[in-house]
Amino acid sequence: MNESGQSMLRVEDETPFIQFEHVYKSFDEKEVLIDVSFDLRKGETLAILGRSGVGKSVTLMHMVGFMKPDRGKINVKGQDIVTLDERQLSSLRRCISLVSQSGGLFDSLSVAENVTYAVNEKHPLSDEETRREAIRFLKMVDLEDLVDLYPKDLSTGHKRCVAIARALAAEPEAILYDEPTTMVDPIQSQLVARLIQRLHNQYKLTAVVVTHDLKLTRRVAERVVLLEEGRVHFLGTRDEFFASGDPLVHEFVMRDHVVALEAGAL
Known about the structure:
The chain is an alpha/beta fold. It has a domain at 1-9 and 34-86 and 208-266: Rossmann fold (3-Layer(aba) Sandwich). It is 39% helix and 24% strand. It is built from ten helices and ten strands.
């Protein structure tokens, strides 16, 4: 059991679901990722931590082929996706859902239509079917009462949860979360954290959580990658991370603790 009482998932398949091998990426001659190597196993939740600008979201974008590395290999389900064309990448993205920082909801669509957007793209639904499917997935995130609202009617936290329901509607094997609790008040942050924890306990989805939120990390992560100046500074279990005597890890943990105290979150 972890500190929040969560039973940690047992990862039976040790074959990496996603694997980075010596990945490099630069923008305008600025090195953002430098010799980055790590893996994510099926059924596992991995947290990618680091200060702003160290390449966390860039790493996430590489996992679904929205960016390609300058050098290195990125294997997803045993296939090097660096070599894939856009048609092949589209097929890959059907098994991996990305929940962006903004949520990416369409303002002109209702919550029901947002949730079922990907389903409708593949198999057009009647209005009745759209509502029924939306309610099914919104129930998974305890927000079925929002089915007829529009994004403008939702809090930031609820927008994130609706975005997660939409990700689930694609029935993915993995979900990638980009800063799911940023710009959310402490109460809604706990709501999002509980949701991520419950979904991955219940459905055993593979997950990557890019975050600076150590409370979220403690709650949902099994392993942790800490990026520093574009490199993997730490890779290990969540418990190893929080018990680490490494000065940089300690500084990162303590900085978050001080920020939380100042915000009144502890």
